Amino acid sequence: MSTYSYDPGSSPARAQRDPERIVSPDAPSPLGPYAHAVRAAGLVFCSGQGARDPATGKEAGVELDEAGRVVHYDIRLQTEAALANLRGVLEAAGTSWDRLVELNVFLKDMSDFAAMNEVYGKAFPAGGPARTTVGVADLPGDNFVEIRAIAAE
Question: What is the arithmetic mean of pLDDT over 9-23?
């Protein structure tokens, strides 16, 4: 019977380089102490991107009342904005849309699935990467969709 001992100092991923934080000028500033993405082991791990416009700081596709409460939102516009922010992160990391290997979509309301999927399909006309879509109880800000991704370098 053979045994295997793990030496993290000699792993192929470690030999490539240490993880590198990526910050994109084309995506909204993170709302917490995290990077837009981290490059490690030949992959780029992108933090979730919502619909916040990097220039204005406001979420796309949202109508607010005088008190600042959401009275209407357009999941199509939100999905387009989230995908645009994700594209900016990928470009800052030196990779591209066609190098995506996995996406996770978080929806505040699963009844928005068909409309989100319609926009998503236009972004990936030849078929996209592996994907999971889940419903969540809440998202930060006035986001109704958030998308995170993993891409090859």
Answer: 67
What residues make up the domain containing 76?
A: 15-152
Q: Is residue 10 assigned to a domain? A: no
Global confidence as pTM:
0.87
Please write the tens of the pLDDT for every residue from 101-125. Answer: 999 999 999 999 999 999 999 999 9
Q: Looking at residue 125, which CATH number applies to its domain?
A: 3.30.1330.40
d(CA 145, CA 76): 10
Cα distance between residue 37 and residue 88, in whole Å: 11
SS (H, E, C) 34-98: CCCEEEECCEEEEEEECCECCCCCCECCEEECCCCCEEEECHHHHHHHHHHHHHHHHHHCCCCHH
